[in-house]
């Protein structure tokens, strides 16, 4: 899906036409009112008011995913009688209310579409992150059978020797520490991409990113409820000397949360250190692919994104503690989300009698 392009104002076309044809025989050009120059901001706001933007359904889809995730989150909290810190919940609710007000006010009554879209995108993204994290943690209370045996055997079946791979990374500490920085950069990348796309006026890419992010993070968290896994590091029991050569917490950073919410008598959810525990499928793989996709059309940024996210993808095994099969399933999840986003774009364009968006037609 290409970025939004700013069209030449209508006044320029009128001026060029009058130069070619000369003054009107009915009225001189001096008698005619000067054509009003419409700024791109005002034009985008008018289109938003009329609901003519082709990414409307990606925007609505993002909110629907967040609402559905909230419903499932509420059910899990009620089902297992899990408490959320009241202060955290109040602060988060206040932040969401502020961002949604910005989104609505500057999208419907003020000509500031950049601010409106940015506020809405941040709200939908944060909402989905929090809901997915709570789902992945509280869902562990079901104590469904672990699928580590299945995932480990799947890796062996395709010839992957994870213990040897991890030992190799442990023997290259500089590379491992670089991979750790890359692996932990996903939130920073996302925080930079949202305002970048909004300020560039690429609202189609912005809402595609938000929708795909929201859908994949919620689906991945839901998968982890019914098919939980401790991860490859816990499954293969790497020697302590190997773990000591890797960055702190590599491959096992999530295990304390995993055991706490799966086995503690009465766990409590706190937003201060909210951390999901999704092993299968790999959500970092989804992040890599959606980040690269969001930067297509910006040559210099795309090149940087490709190189850096190649490191992120590699890091999912030695730093994230994933099985290799997790990466493949994460890629399939991203493809499914992109297909749904494209379908929404085609459906909206068809209903409006508009040209099919490039991303939807791809």
UniProtKB/TrEMBL annotation:
Bilayer-crossing regions: 57-77, 89-106, 118-140, 174-200, 206-227, 300-317, 323-344
An annotated GO cellular component: membrane
Keyword Transmembrane helix set for record: yes
Residue ranges annotated for the Inositolphosphotransferase Aur1/Ipt1 domain, each copy included: 153-339
Keyword line: Membrane, Transmembrane, Transmembrane helix
Highest taxon of the lineage: Bacteria
Full protein name: Inositolphosphotransferase Aur1/Ipt1 domain-containing protein
Record organism: Bradyrhizobium pachyrhizi
């Amino acid at each position: 899906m290409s970025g939004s392009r700013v069209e030449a104002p209508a006044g320029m076309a009128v001026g060029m036409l009058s130069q070619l044809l000369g003054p009107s025989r009915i009225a001189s050009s001096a008698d005619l009112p000067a054509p009003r120059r419409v700024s791109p901001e005002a034009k985008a706001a008018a289109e938003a008011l009329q609901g003519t933007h082709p990414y409307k359904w990606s925007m609505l889809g993002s909110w629907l995913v967040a609402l559905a995730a909230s419903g499932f989150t509420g059910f899990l909290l009620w089902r297992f009688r899990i408490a959320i810190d009241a202060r955290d919940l109040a602060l988060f609710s206040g932040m969401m209310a502020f961002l949604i007000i910005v989104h609505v006010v500057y999208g419907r009554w003020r000509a500031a579409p950049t601010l409106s879209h940015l506020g809405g995108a941040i709200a939908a993204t944060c909402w989905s992150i929090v809901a997915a994290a709570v789902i992945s943690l509280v869902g562990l209370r079901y104590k469904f059978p672990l699928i580590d045996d299945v995932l480990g055997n799947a890796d062996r079946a395709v010839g992957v020797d994870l213990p040897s791979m991890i030992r190799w990374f442990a023997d290259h500490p500089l590379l491992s520490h670089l991979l750790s920085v890359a692996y932990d950069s996903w939130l920073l990348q996302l925080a930079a991409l949202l305002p970048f796309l909004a300020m560039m006026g690429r609202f189609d890419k912005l809402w595609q990113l938000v929708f795909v992010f929201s859908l994949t993070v919620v689906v991945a968290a839901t998968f982890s409820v019914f098919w939980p896994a401790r991860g490859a590091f816990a499954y293969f029991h790497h020697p302590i000397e190997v773990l000591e050569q890797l960055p702190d917490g590599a491959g096992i950073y999530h295990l304390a949360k995993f055991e706490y919410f799966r086995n503690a008598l009465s766990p409590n959810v706190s937003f201060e250190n909210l951390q999901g525990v999704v092993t299968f499928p790999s959500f970092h793989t989804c992040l890599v692919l959606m980040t690269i996709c969001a930067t297509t059309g910006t040559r210099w940024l795309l090149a940087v994104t490709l190189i850096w996210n190649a490191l992120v993808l590699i890091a999912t095994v030695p730093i994230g503690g994933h099985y290799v099969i997790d990466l493949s399933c994460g890629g399939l999840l991203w493809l499914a989300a992109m297909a749904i986003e494209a379908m929404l774009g085609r459906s909206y364009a068809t209903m409006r009698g508009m040209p099919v968006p490039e991303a939807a037609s791809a």
